[in-house]
């Protein structure tokens, strides 16, 4: 997982924890993302994964999302087409909320859509 040095890997927007990974996420490099998601889940009832810079995810990536979703309300924001397709293919877009933008995912009423 690569991290944009200009944007924190984990931050908050409107009191909601936002995790901001980038690049290709697979079995070889998922542990930092897993740790950040689990840490963010402890900070509040909602965690947003800003997926706008994720270019690839495999079944291990999906497992990490599923694990986090059991601990918190996990919202996926701004997924790239490949990630959106992956979530749709396995039906995870039905199990967790997917939003077209980070702003929508972090809106106070986003979970009520």
TrEMBL record:
| Alphabetized GO MF terms | anti-sigma factor antagonist activity
Q: Which InterPro entries match?
A: STAS_dom, STAS_dom_sf
**Database matches in Gene3D superfamilies:** STAS domain
Question: Taking every annotated instance into account, which residue ranges of this chain make up the domain STAS?
Answer: 6-109
Pfam families linked:
STAS
Name of the featured protein: Anti-anti-sigma factor
Query: What is the species listed in this Swiss-Prot or TrEMBL entry?
Result: Actinacidiphila alni
Q: What is the lineage of its organism?
A: Bacteria, Bacillati, Actinomycetota, Actinomycetes, Kitasatosporales
């Amino acid at each position: 997982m690569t991290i944009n040095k200009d944007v924190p890997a984990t931050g908050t927007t409107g009191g909601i924890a936002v995790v901001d990974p980038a690049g290709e996420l697979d079995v070889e490099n998922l542990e930092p993302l897993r740790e950040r998601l689990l840490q963010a889940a402890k900070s509040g009832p909602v965690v947003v994964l800003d997926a706008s810079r994720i270019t690839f995810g495999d079944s291990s990536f999906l497992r990490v999302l599923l694990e986090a979703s059991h601990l918190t309300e996990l919202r996926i924001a701004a997924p790239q087409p490949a990630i959106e397709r992956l979530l749709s293919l396995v039906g995870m877009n039905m199990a967790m909320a997917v939003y077209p933008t980070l702003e929508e995912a972090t809106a106070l009423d986003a979970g009520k859509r």
